[in-house]
Amino acid sequence: MPRVVCLGIIVVDVWAWPVDQWPEKGRLLLVDEIGIGLGGHATNSGRCLAKLGVDVAVMGCIGQDGLGDFALEELQAQGVETTSIYRTAATGTAATLIMVDGAGERTFVHAVGADGEIRPQQLDMDLVKSAQFLYMAGALAMPGFDGEPQAQVMAEAQQAGLTTVLDVVWDATGKWLETLAPVLPHTDIFLPSLVEAQEITGHKDPSDVAAFLLDTGIEIVGLTNGAEGVWVFTANEEIALPAYEVDVVDGSGAGDAFTAGFVYGCLHDWELERTARFACAMGALATTTLGTTTGIKDYQQVLAFLQEREPQNWE
């Protein structure tokens, strides 16, 4: 049985690098590389956890198409359980075009596709309840499931004794808190970017953002801020950590790798700062290659990365 269920968006990415300017309409732009790979919060974090040696299942919805076949094959090849991924004929698998510039910054064009078809009745709640953690991956990008349906699933998981984890995507509808309000009280750990959390709460300062979120009943709030690092808050603790310096190639998947690292630390009952440092290392390594998770190899790689930079903390 899985220790973690990653429930949420499953996306196939097509990326191009480097794209430092958009071509004129009707013209051709030459780039060095174009590739295809898996994206989406559920798949990215699930694969990272599998690479760390965690038994993990990904749950969500894909189309009955070639992109869906590709997603299943990639997940299964990395040891992720896929038996509870639902396939729909109503639409195609979610997909994103990613333009990566020379500095590793990304611009996205996204089709929601089958991620918009997720419904509670499709979910194997027995499988969910067999796990220790439920990661609701990519809220605000699952029309038909966001809001009250997600809250019901999160509440049921909490009642079964699971730790619930939440992350979001940028809300193109601008509804942010209106959509998330039912979900937050059933969330134990919330790991958005600072910019996302500012939109949700209406506050700017990280401490004010965290206070707002902790007041909803969340136990741990982690606010990622790219190259600036991360803030982690509980009711009694505040941790600010800088990002690890690496040669950034592609920022895609860094937040999902961070989440996987954070969940890994919690699974092993690490203290909060150790968990956050491990998560930051995961996020940094994810940026060192093109694609969302190729920069993550295994636990020993992450440990060696940390031992090189902080031998006093990672003997």
Secondary structure elements and pairings:
Layout lengths: L3 E5 L2 E7 L15 E7 L1 H11 L4 E4 L1 E3 L2 H12 L8 E3 L5 E7 L5 E6 L13 H5 L3 E7 L8 H12 L3 E6 L8 H4 L8 E2 L3 H8 L4 H9 L5 E5 L5 E4 L4 E4 L12 H14 L4 H15 L12 H11 L6
Parallel strand pairs: 1-4, 1-9, 2-7, 5-6, 9-10, 10-11, 11-12
Antiparallel strand pairs: 2-3, 7-8, 12-13, 13-14
Helix pairs in contact: 1-8, 6-7, 8-9, 9-10
Give an overview in words.
This protein is an alpha/beta fold. The protein has one domain (4-22, 32-309): UDP-N-acetylmuramoyl-L-alanine:D-glutamate ligase, CATH 3.40.1190.20. It is built from ten helices and 14 strands. The protein has helices at residues 41-51, 66-77, 125-129, 148-159, 177-180, 194-201, 206-214, 254-267, 272-286, 299-309; strands at residues 4-8, 11-17, 33-39, 56-59, 61-63, 86-88, 94-100, 106-111, 133-139, 163-168, 189-190, 220-224, 230-233, 238-241. The strands form three sheets. It has an eight-stranded mixed sheet, with helices on both faces. A four-stranded mixed sheet has the order 3-2-7-8. The chain has a two-stranded parallel ribbon with strand order 5-6. Strand 10, helix 5 and strand 11 (189-190) form a beta-alpha-beta unit. Helix 1 (41-51) crosses helix 8 (254-267) and helix 9 packs across helix 10 (299-309). The longest helix has 15 residues, at 272-286. The radius of gyration is 18 Å and the shape is globular. The two termini are 32 Å apart. The mean pLDDT is 95.
